[in-house]
Amino acid sequence: xxxxxxxxxxxxxxxxxxxxxxxxxxxxxxxxxxxxxxxxxxxxxxxxxxxxxxxxxxxxxxxxxxxxxxxxxxxxxxxxxxxxxxxxxxxxxxxxxxxxxxxxxxxxxxxxxxxxxxxxxxxxxxxxxxxxxxxxxxxxxxxxxxxxxxxxxxxxxxxxxxxxxxxxxxxxxxxxxxxxxxxxxxxxxxxxxxxxxxxxxxxxxxxxxxxxxxxxxxxxxxxxxxxxxxxxxxxxxxxxxxxxxxxxxx
Length: 250
Prior knowledge:
By secondary structure, this protein is of the alpha/beta class. It is built from 10 helices and 10 strands. The chain has a domain at 7-88 and 170-176 and 201-250: 3-Layer(aba) Sandwich (Rossmann fold), CATH 3.40.50. A 6-stranded mixed sheet has the order 6-7-8-3-9-10, sandwiched between helices. A 4-stranded antiparallel sheet has the order 2-1-4-5, covered by helices on one side. The longest helix is centred in the C-terminal third of the chain and has 18 residues, at 181-198. It comes from Aquimarina atlantica. GO terms for molecular function: ATP binding; ATP hydrolysis activity.
């Protein structure tokens, strides 16, 4: 099931290529993320998922190809324009990536301070922090340190931090990795409720088949550096293609 043509594309990667010497990691990878959609990208370890995400957030430069976010090609934007665009994007890092030396409150204030000129939020910081923590059920943890939180709670705080600027697009990098099955289900349900509440568009990088089944509107399989196959979970899980079937074996 492909999105209808009149739905707006909020993110488009076109013919992305990235080599490390003779190692061709991305070989012309393309995707489109549509408004209000949960798009899952699945790939085996070393398939280029992390490289694609790093190119997407500007941590790595692609060799060629384009990345357009809300119609703007980020590969040619200046730093000021790129910083403004980044306020439209939330990023849940693999492993949460909280600042160990900061309290939960300070972790959430960090992106607000960075973008205060654009956001004009003087005096509203406290309210935004509390709202973000309420969204993930952790308002009571506001003054705790990351070391005082369980892995699942840390992931929730990281999600609150990704949400605090009320982004239109959220990138999830392996959101359930390292979590037990029950906590993984809680995080997936939280992702669904946030998408419903804010109408966000989500790009979810995962190798967790259960996560993909529950959360996705559409799935792309990244194989040999390209968009090898795409469709709904049902469509792909019924495929007879050996490369596709390999993803859905239990």
